[in-house]
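Q: Predict the assembly, please.
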Amino acid sequence: MTQPYMFEKPLGLRDLLPSAQRAIARLENIFQQELQRWGYDFLQTPALEYAETVGRASAIEDSQLFKFLDAEGHPVVLRPDMTTPIARIAASSLRKEPLPLRLAYTTALYRSQKKEGGHPSEFEQTGAELIGDATAYADVEIISLMIALLQKTGIDSIRLAIGHVGFVNAFFYDIVKDKKTVGQLRNLLYNKNDVGFREYVASLELPDESARKLNAFIDSRRLNNDETLDYLESLTSGSAIPVHSYYQNILELVDLLKTDHLEGKIDLDITLVPHLNYYTGFVFQGFGGGLGFPVASGGRYDDLLAQFDRPCPATGFGIRMDRLLSAARQSGIQTEPRKKAVIFDRANAGRALLFANQERNKGNAVVLQHADGIDDAAAFAEQFETIKRFLSSDRMETE
Amino acid sequence: MNESRITVAMPKGRIFDDACRLLRNAGFSLPDTFESTRKLILDLDDEPFRFILAKPVDVPTYVEYGAVDIGIAGKDVLLESGRDVYEMVDLGISKCHMAVAGLPQHRSSNPYLKIATKYPHIASDYYRKRGEQVDLIALNGSIELAPIVGLADAIVDIVSTGQTLRENGLVEFDRLMDISSRLIVNPVSYRLKKKAIDQIVEKMIRATEGNKVGMD
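A: Predicted assembly structure:
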């Protein structure tokens, strides 16, 4: 490459300037408090993980991994997700802890992006994982917790799309009886390519009834929640056992969400398939603030811990802080801080310090500044909500 | 994103007239001046719709970022850009196909075939799946020139009637895929404006039925 300019950063990386950092810290504080109230414990993991363990299990495409050799020559990756490191911990350091585990994190993730703006390679994520509980109650807890966090931020039009990849896999397998074909169909769903899905179904030369069932599956995205449940029930007749039990699973979840009065925010969409292929059950995406991208996502991953020799059901979510910040801005949420300034000179330093500390103890943000250190008085004053001067020259203390 | 209004990205140029005809068939009361205007943004008087007129290759970009809710885009553009949008309906308009073409009896002296194209991703994907390594040369138009002036051994491009190829003495070597225009939807818009968008999708499917017959 050509010599970088002084201001440039590596591709896809960006600075968080004070205003953005303040806004993100505010959101993270809200999340931290709320997650602790729900009994979730925070933890941290290293930024580097072995490529053969966490790198492989994370199921992020190789081209998206930042991969290099550590000092001992082992291939390592910058962590591309947090669910996999937490699975590693749950299966090792926390192996003896009683289940279920409730764990939370706020951390930076790294995914190399080839695309243009709006797709940073490093981004903050806050998330929670509920490990060791296979019941629908665990899924409901994770979903309601995610909605609770989004609501606390004040962003508007929060919506959640919920699907179930376990059901999708079982239903497809029941019809086509071939794992590779199931994978193809699922991939077309992930790519949101309805037209391609129908073309592929036509190319399979299935019996008319089977092709009709697969095409109706795509159409079901247009149904409302009750219609979707009716539709899913109609699929269970004559289907294999997994389809039945997953249907019961979905029914139970919707019932519980109704109890929590969350049903109005939910769009039950069985065609929803996320990109991380470690998901095994419920999957969901959260939207809000009129942003063009999902701000949060998650789901159940019952097979992931087995890769670390501790087979165990688990479910969780992550909220993209960078996207949430854009959503908050689009919702018009004010994130600018209200700071006070105290300006003093040598003769009044003691009184000024006393006053500033009193204000700080009240919880106010106070800048204590010697008058001689100010370059442009007017520009300096503009940054503050109020200014109190302790100056002997004019013998006046003004607000 | 405005909650009540649906915004639609329309492709200017070749596909535009086809797309307008289809929208009228689907029951949208587009103004008579729609096809002739130089304006880039048009609001309908009596319906909550806003249309933006964009370059066809840019339509999926507007849709992916949520700058508009839905768009009409060629499958060629969608394949090349790989944008994260719902591809909901094959509109069956502006049909053509993607093909490899070149001079008849041309023998390449290059160790790797040189391929000129507007679609480097599609071309690269095609040759990789065939197990062939090629050198791609990205051009922006009049691709047919490349083999004639010796810039490339062959081209990968869309062909509709084949007239341009014939008039320039080129022949088609292989047909990659059929291309037509698609209705695409931003995934988040779909969640937030599901009812309105589903209504449009259904209207479009009905208006499209006619185009399905007599596919060549």
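Chain B touches chain A through 25 residues (CB under 8 Å). Chain B has two domains: 6-94+180-207, 96-177.
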